[in-house]
Amino acid sequence: MRGHLSVAHASILTDITDTENEDENLSNKRGHVQGSLYSSTKKFKIEAGSSASTSKQSSVNVLGQETTAGSTCSTSIPGVSSSTSRSKITKNIKDVFVNIKSFQEGDVKHTKLTDKILFVICKDSQPLTTVEREGFRELIAYVAPNYKLPCRKIFARHLDQKYEKLSGDYEDIFKTVKNITLTTDLWTDTLNTRSFLRVTAHFWKGSEIASVILGVYEFITSHTAANLQEKLRNVCQEWGITIDKISAVVTDNAANIVKAVEDFIGKKYHLRCCAHKINFVAEKSIKGVAGLPDLIQKVKSIVTWFKQSNKASDELRAAYELKLKQDVNTKWNSTFYMLQRFIQIRRVVHDILYNYPSAPPMVTPQELEKLTEVCDVLKPLEKITREWSAEKYVTLSKVIPMIHGLVDQLQTVDANNGMAEELKREMLGEIKQRFDQVEKVPMFAIATLLDPSLKKIDFQDPVACSRAVHLVKNMLQQQRPQYSNPDITETEEIASNMASLCREIRKEPQALRSLSK
Predict the structure, then answer these.
(1) What is the CATH number of the domain that holds 200?
(2) Over the stretch 236-260, which tens digit does the pLDDT of each residue have?
(3) Distance (Å, whole) CA 119 – CA 166
(4) How many distinct structural domains can be found in the chain?
């Protein structure tokens, strides 16, 4: 047995040897203490022999305990229980081998640990080669010495098996779900000139919003509406999603994807991403203001210079806890954050730029004043973008009231310079162009009307509000014929069926999850 352990399980043998040594030391210690006690007691009795009356007379040991002759003197070592110490210290060999076997491939602990590693790789978007890296392997060897880490190819096989299992689970879920909203986006990887189409499904799972990426498909054909429509249809068939379960499809404003969705499911089920529209409002408004793009580019040049200069970046980091932010061309709010942070730490930036003759020129005080007012004008737009980009709650019913609130807030913003005033006019014009008919879109109108906190309050077009009420009444008559009594007033009918309609209609807004894309 010891030979087998020394070859195959050296660490186990070491533990057992240590345990035996501990037992031997404990036994020696107990014997030494008992011997000492015996010698001390004997010496005490000899010295007190003349005063002892009989052999059965009581005697006192060195521990202060009274004993009688002929009885056994029991001693105890503080902190050590002779009956339980060995059971606590000695490891059960059977349990040790059961634990070792559980780490063998296919057993409980091996399977669970492999699944956890695979989850980390997928959740953190790590490559499968992570399991072959030296640092990761040393970590696993330290945490679970008996676990044999599989190679990359085995993890790839496990990944395929896990995908097949989860795909089957979600296909079963889709069979029970009544309403599903799809979001889709087509983009091109400019570095490799490859195009991809992503499709995501959103639905209610119990009392929470669930979102599942159905796939990211490489789109090798031309980006025509017919090809996009065919791909969407194939994706739905692959996952068992029938047309009657699709409440809405949300896309950007590209003409090809708009036509593809309208041909696929119908115009009334198509929604254009509102956050994408807001992005266009900001971009078009900034470009329409004379001198503003150049001023933003001037700030961007300073930020880029800091990103490229290690020495300047170190000085900025030492002088201030915040760092400059760089904008992204496809996200207008990144430009707002860049300007906001630049204004916040402008003094430190100025002091550092002053020490570098090759640095780009600092913005002037007059330009800083203009940028400050520009940020004040853009701030309401940033708030509405963040609010519409929510993932955990419904946002469709907020579109109409927030658009009206945005217009009201922009009109009250004080602009003391011509640049900010011109930006405000451009933004109001773009908002009117892109959101002027928002109350006439049935989904927006119905969702707002059925929101208990909003109802009819934010409607500015009486005709649009009346049409929304009429649509709700028709839906009530179709879903609940028993409530179609003409004697029931319009308000009473809506109130009596609010819970049912909210459950059905408010599932549509889950498509707005794509607002942040």
Answers:
(1) 3.30.420.40
(2) 999 999 998 999 999 988 899 999 9
(3) 13
(4) 5
